[in-house]
Design goal:
By secondary structure, the protein is mainly alpha-helical. It has seven helices and no strands.
């Protein structure tokens, strides 16, 4: 699949939205309450998906949307990395997460509370999925998606030279 093809960007969008769907399954079917950092990681996946869709639709602005998708991925990587550091050292958290009020005050938490409302603690231990914590999986997928976008951008730029 070429790095400048619609299918390339559509696949990235499908994976991103699929991962948000899995997070919603864990929340609504398994009863795992998302913490503020989980919600912020959802924002990153949604942004990657939306920007990838826009890249698939727009020929002339494809580089812009791809760059914004990559930037969203980098932000998500930072949040997921911080989340993992809190899980490794739970004493670093004060118990009451100050980010929760900020995340829940965003318009998205009021419009789509089923997706973007935070009600859990960032240091709450959740059962791992295939031996890896949920923030660990989030970090892995954010790195993969951002890396795929970056490689695609580099390959496309080389082809234009």
């Amino acid at each position: 699949m070429q790095a400048n093809s619609r299918a390339y960007f559509l696949l990235i969008a499908i994976v991103s939205f699929g991962l948000v769907g899995y997070a919603l399954y864990l929340q609504h079917a398994q009863g795992y309450q998302p913490c503020p950092l989980c919600v912020m990681q959802r924002f990153a996946f949604v942004a990657i998906g939306l920007f990838s869709l826009l890249a698939a639709l727009g020929q002339g602005t494809r580089t812009l949307w791809q760059g914004l998708a990559m930037l969203s991925g980098v932000g998500g990587i930072a949040v997921a990395g911080y989340h993992i550091s809190l899980l490794l050292d739970p004493k670093a958290s004060c118990g009451i997460d100050p980010l929760e009020n900020w995340v829940n005050a965003l318009p998205t938490a009021r419009v789509l509370p089923q997706v973007f409302y935070s009600d859990g603690l960032c240091t709450a231990p959740l059962p791992p999925v295939l031996g890896i914590s949920i923030p660990g999986w989030s970090l892995i997928w954010l790195v993969v998606l951002t890396g795929v976008l970056a490689v695609g951008l580099i390959r496309r730029e080389r082809n234009y030279r």
